[in-house]
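dumping this here before i forget
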Amino acid sequence: MRWHTFCFTPTNLILTRKELVQKDVEIKNSIRNPQKEDILKLLAKIEKIPFDEIRQFAFSLTLRELYQLVYYFPTADIESHARKICEIIKLRFKDEFVELLWTGFQKNYINRKFCLLFSEILAQKGELFVSYFRNPTVYNLAKNWVASEQVTSSIFKYLNRQGISLDDFFTIFKIEDDTLLAKDIKKHVYLYCNEDFYLKTGGENLRSIIEQYNNEELILFTENYLSKVSFVNFQRDVMEFLAKHKKKPREKELDFFWSNISDSSFKKFCKWIYINTLKIAFNDDRREFWLRYIDLFEDMTYVKKYSQLFMYFENCVVVEFGASGAVHVYQKEEFKKQFQRFANNTDPKNDSFFKMPEKAMRIPHRGYNWQQAADNAMSQIFKGNFIPNVTVKTSGQWIYTDTKLTVGGHYARYYL
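structure:
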């Protein structure tokens, strides 16, 4: 005897089920996003109903109309409407309203009329909300924040006390990441938090938040971040954003943004800019050499077209020329007079334009000991012993002039 297995597929039932599911989705979407005309009709009815007749009106509403009011309630901006809708929701309250209203609060927490009325619902339906949050402490905190006029700052104080991450906080309090409340919590927290909080967030996530700041908020963030985060922990995404959108000015006091940042924070920002500029400009031993002068720089400009680097010190300007060519050092005032307006990416000039031997001290990148000779030369320059038309002898510790036009008309050799 042979056995056969038959499989029956109720095609029509499956199709019917799909249609019902699709129809259910469409109905829910229409309730969540009701037509403006439907809401206006409901509000017109509510407007005419005296408050003492609201109970009878509430029980005359269809389920669809009731849900439409729940979705609309957090956006209600007319107090008489909001008060009546609140009463209707209390009278016809369903368990599903707990999540809908809490989500509505997150999206419209700045609507104080709604928040005050929602506080009443939270108090009246406490058991349902405790069950939703699964913790009476969480419920009580949420209730206090709904009633507070300083929601984000109150939450920030709580986070500071508890030391929990934002992700954990959002999970515990069932806060959706894309809501207005979530976005504003993030914005507020990162204006005042500590280094650990910044580092836990990660540079990429932090950048996406600070991109939303207005100028005043960005000033607060920048001061807090630069002052509280140690230099070695600066996050590249954050620093690159600041460098791109709030470029380092030549004179801090004349820049509106940076003039509102403390000198110590600005100095840390500049140091980061200088280090990263040196990394871009050099891939040889010159990078390590100039990094030793990082705390002495007053300004720095890298001209990408010609790979020129202009390094400004207190009394001189050092010019590096790409892959080859001796360093040219000019007295600062002389450089400003001759070259300053062309030492930029707007109107760059080629290397030969910036090579004026009769005005410069030159330091070749050759010899086994060029770094020591260059250090010696820079030390003398910083002391005010600048000698134009001089090339540093990098094979030893001497410098010599190229012409006879020296002190007393003789060849001169200076020991550094």
